[in-house]
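USER:
Class, as today's exercise, take the chain set out below, and explain how the chain folds.
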Amino acid sequence: MNALAHDVPGTFTALAEGRSGIGALTFRDADRLTIRIGAEVRDWAPALDPSRLLLCDRVTQYALVAGAEAMAMAGLSPGLGPRGGVILGTAAGGISTWEDSYRAVFAEGKSRVSPLVVPRLMHNAPASHLSIAHGLQGPVLAISSACASANHAMGLALQQIRYGLADVILTGGSEAMLCFGGVKAWEGLRVLAPDACRPFSLGRKGLVIGDGAGVLVFEAEDHARARGAPILAEVAGFGMTADAGDIVAPDPEGAARAMRLALADAGMTGADIGYINAHGTGTLANDRSESAAILDVFGASPPPVSSTKSMHGHAIGATGALEAIACVLALTQGMLPPTIRYQAVDPDCPLDVVPNMARRAQVAAVLSNAFAFGGLNAVLALRAA
């Protein structure tokens, strides 16, 4: 569920075709912004009960639709009870609900807001609604660590299953930051591109915000095989670190440590990795830092690296989940998604970024990187099933 498509097959097709979901913003007051592009979810009309819609900000609506698709693809029925859980990442929660409520009391002079504001805006709303919809009574919580939220959520889900605390966890992330206040806040940081997202390319100008949700089913292998489940990939390892340095400037050493921890947790070496889905925001600082970290871990000849944010935008707390889905594309269909809008090599980013066109390649294992403001790094290692 993202700017490329409302479902996984459509997203796979768009990634393989190198299609962009970035375009002109259409929400209220977008004309007052300096930056007027983003990766919006277009033509959104969720097939949800009207009474449930009243309770749900778009961040929850996206999660519910993505979660229902994940359950169906996995062949799961509701009612796993205490052996099922939900761990979802989100950076902002119901930010549109915040904005609408602020408009009501400050701009329109109203004396009260809806009694549903708190249930709509809380960060755990997407996870809780998925729990309710599918009868999942085990570990259910929200993770909020900026742009690493989804990877942290998936890493925690992996650990919960390893510890035997659940058999199945719906995990990933959801974000709906594309509203006037959300983009205006990012404008203040001066990291948004005015025209396109060009990760790792010479001449790149910044990131482009995107919306959407990615929900994956993490399941204990013995449980999945016992019910004859379709297994797409193995979540093999996870690594997380903190730079403990600057609140916004990345440190390549912290990113490199997270990649090494993920490899070690998976029992793999750099030679086993055939593809890296980079954090690749399109900012000068991130792409240089991430390139240095990758070269530190993999040496002078790292595997192909691409940033799918060039297509689906930077979905902040959901972005790691969308990128994990892109990694599944690489593992199951032998298709490395491209970095589109790439123009020229930046000497500070000497990587094979799969420029502009997807590439056929059989890979057995991949890494998915997520690095966040606050100096937080979270890396997943996935292996072909």
Remarks:
- The CA atoms of residues 306 and 353 lie 5 Å apart.
- The chain has a mean pLDDT of 97.
- The chain has 13 helices and 13 strands.
